[in-house]
Amino acid sequence: MYARILIPLEHAASDQYILAHVRELARLCHSSLLLIHVADGFAARNMRSLGLRESEEIQQDRAYLETCCAALRADGFEADSVLAAGDPATEIATAAARESCDLIAMAVHGHRGIQDVIYGSTANSVRHNSMVPVLMVRIPQRS
Q: How many independent structural domains does the chain possess?
């Protein structure tokens, strides 16, 4: 059903929640997994145009993605990763199309009202901008 699943990661604790959820789906569907992290800080967004060197943050993001991929491979999954820079929603939707993914599975935080205005909603933008189905898994809120 889903041959290739794109999983956006935030380099945060919520990543383990979405990865655990997707592992089960991927086992059932025999899916390959593609992890993506979108660096969206000033250096990441302007690295090419300003000729900047890769920042320490980007190096850490790349290492994090590789660690996550290695764990998935150790569990028997085919897993690759993409480190992108720019607007997260745009980069996620673009990567899904470019990499022939047939599902985007992402963690959502469940902000409401003014919090969505303040924090934005990457998941909502991805949902509107991608032709690929989007599975949104709400992470439990900490008390």
A: 1
Residues in the chain: 143
Angle 88-98/122-129 helices, nearest 10 degrees? 40
Cα 39 to Cα 31: distance, rounded to the nearest angstrom: 26
Pull the structure tokens for residue 4.
Answer: 């290739």
How far is Cα 115 from Cα 118, in angstroms, rounded to an integer?
5
Q: DSSP assignment, residue 135?
A: E
pTM score, whole prediction:
0.86
Tens-place pLDDT, residues 64-120: 999 999 999 999 999 999 999 888 999 999 999 999 999 999 998 765 555 554 445
Q: Is the dihedral of CA 12, 31, 123, 60 positive or negative?
A: positive
What is the DSSP-derived secondary structure letter of residue 36? E
CATH code, domain carrying 107: 3.40.50.620
SS3 138: strand
